[in-house]
Design brief:
Keywords: Kinase, Membrane, Transferase, Transmembrane, Transmembrane helix, Two-component regulatory system. This protein is of the alpha+beta class. 55% of the residues lie in helices and 14% in strands.
């Protein structure tokens, strides 16, 4: 198929209007100053020469030639009008040139906006030459017009203004070009994420997992510094730190407040290694202790801390500190990349969940409500003898009500988040209480949460696993009781959901799909999913993160005290 001919560019309506407004203004000023209608033939000439700029503003030959002719005509007209104005005495000698010279801005500005900087310089030179030549030729009573101070001052003034206007128009054009070519936010995000994916595939182990990087860092530190306890902490909301990974034989309650009187707070504020002769754990009761806190700094920003402690005095002299900082320096950049990736993934996930919740609420949920109202209206208008039809409609109405309830619970699940101040245990308990109340389940709780917090992304994944386990028990188990255990002692956590339903005999595909999702989430945070039968009936689903540092374990969930 033959290609269609290129479409000639249309002049901008504002540019055309500005050109003709300028012509009208110059014509009016010429008539007022010269009091001679014959002098308007200059305006007619400019009007004729402006036609190519309106009809073919981008023509390679015609448009530049017309602009050059406009500049020459303006120079000749300025000299002629200046002489006529001086003759009638309306203006001083030569000053009348300023009546026509403002029109110079039109061809100069058009050339600048069309990226013709060389043409603009040529036009300025042509205007200056024409003004000088016409001023030398035109004679007045006192001699050549070029000898009049007023004429030369007006010409110089408008030539300077024309040059400044050309520069300003060119600068505006460049600024507009930058604004037009600036990548859109989503295009820029796509480009950056594509680069991130390529770089991630080249990383050792192809991992961007903050917990995995933190554990590898602790392994590296064991070879260069003595440590009975060690941890990697990173920043979280509320001016506190969270434990990404730790190495210890027993429970360690690390100081996570950044406003406390501790080496941790000092190292964070100064971005320099800090040593102390007392433990940075609030639970340690040992006698001799050496502590070393090294900040993880990427660029100028602190992203975390490494804490190592030994049960001896003076365990970290300057050479040891130097070895530790040599290891933590490169690790800081790796950890920052992993944390940023984790944050981007969490933001994208949360936004998608909120979008789905809005679509479900505003779409299918509202439509189902209207269907329910329609069934109610049909029941109200049925004749009394249509008992069979009425019974079928009541059954259908009950099914619609059930689906609406399911949707409302799904909306609650999609919108549920771990509150920064409430913690993971509170979010799980709230969800279990809401679902249990809707399904008629008796829910029993065992909640044991440390004041320290897990990373936000890890808490979010654990909440989703707990929600899926609770939902499976409600939908498929046919249970009467639900036991929920939440034990959090960063970096360790255990979430357990037990029901007294029919157990693993349920082979429904959607239930199995939920188990697969839970397993994928557990693997993502380096946890392990455990599914086992409960005696005498029911199922236990548990997710365990890390190894428990506690000597005493949480009581079995089947013996937990009852909640609501």
């Amino acid at each position: 198929m033959a290609a269609s001919p290129p479409v000639a560019p249309r002049p901008h309506p504002l540019a055309v209007a500005a050109r003709f407004v300028m012509l009208a203004l110059v014509a009016l000023l010429t008539l007022i100053t010269t009091r001679d209608p014959d002098r308007l033939w200059w305006i007619v000439a400019l009007l004729f020469l402006s036609i190519p700029g309106v009809v073919a503003p981008r023509h390679r030959i015609l448009a530049p030639a017309a602009r050059f002719a406009e500049v020459v005509v303006v120079g000749l007209a300025a000299s002629d009008v200046a002489g006529a104005a001086s003759a009638v005495g309306s203006l001083g000698p030569g000053v009348g040139a300023e009546v026509i010279l403002p029109y110079l801005a039109v061809p100069l500005t058009v050339a600048a906006l069309q990226r013709r900087s060389r043409e603009g310089a040529v036009l300025l030179g042509a205007a200056a030459g024409t003004l000088l030549a016409s001023g030398a030729v035109n004679m007045t009573a006192s001699g050549p017009q070029i000898t009049q101070i007023g004429y030369m001052a007006v010409c110089a003034q408008w030539l300077i203004l024309g040059g400044l206007g050309t520069f300003a128009a060119d600068t505006l054009r460049r600024w507009m070009l930058v604004r037009e070519t600036k990548p859109q936010p989503y295009a820029e995000a796509t480009r950056l994420l594509t680069q991130l994916r390529s770089v991630a595939r080249q990383l050792p182990g192809a991992t961007l997992d903050p917990g995995g990087i933190a554990e590898h860092l602790l392994e590296e530190l064991r070879a260069v510094a003595p440590a009975d306890r060690a941890a990697v902490l990173t920043a979280s909301g509320g001016g506190r730190l969270v434990v990404l990974a730790q190495s210890a034989m027993e429970r360690v309650d690390w100081e996570t407040a950044l406003d406390a009187d501790s080496a941790i707070a000092d190292a964070w504020a100064s971005q320099q290694p800090a040593t102390a002769s007392r433990s940075q754990s609030r639970s340690h009761r040992g006698a001799e202790v050496s502590a070393l806190v090294v900040p993880l700094v990427a660029g100028v920003r602190s992203i975390g801390l490494v804490v190592v402690e030994a049960n001896t005095s003076l365990a970290y002299p300057a050479p040891v500190v130097a070895k530790v900082t040599a290891v933590t320096g490169p690790a800081a950049l790796r950890l920052e990349a992993a944390l940023l990736f984790d944050e981007v993934r969490s933001l994208a996930t949360n936004e998608e969940r909120q979008r789905l919740a809005r679509e479900i609420h505003d779409g299918v949920a509202q439509e189902l409500v209207m269907v329910g109202y329609g069934i109610d209206n049909a029941l109200a208008t049925l004749p009394e003898d249509a008992k069979e039809t009425a019974e079928e409609l009541r059954t259908l109405r009950g099914e619609v009500t059930r689906v609406i309830t399911e949707l409302r619970l799904s909306l609650f699940e999609l919108r549920s988040e771990v509150d920064r101040h409430g913690g993971l245990a509170g979010a799980i308990a709230e969800y279990a209480r809401t679902v249990g109340s809707a399904a008629g389940l008796r829910v029993h709780y065992t909640l044991d949460e440390s004041t320290a917090r897990l990373p936000a992304a890890t808490e979010a994944e654990l909440l989703r696993i707990a929600q899926e386990a609770i939902t499976n028990a409600r939908k498929h188990a046919g249970a009467s009781n639900l036991w929920v255990t939440c034990e959090v002692d960063p970096p360790y956590a255990r979430i357990e959901v037990t029901d007294d339903g029919q157990g693993m005999a349920d082979k429904r595909p959607d239930g199995r799909y939920g188990l697969a999702i839970m397993n994928e989430r557990a693997e993502r945070i380096r946890g392990r999913l455990e599914i086992r039968p409960r005696n005498p009936s029911g199922t236990t689903v548990a997710v365990v993160l890390g190894a428990s540092p506690r000597r005493d374990s949480v009581r079995d969930s089947g013996n937990a005290p009852e909640g609501e």
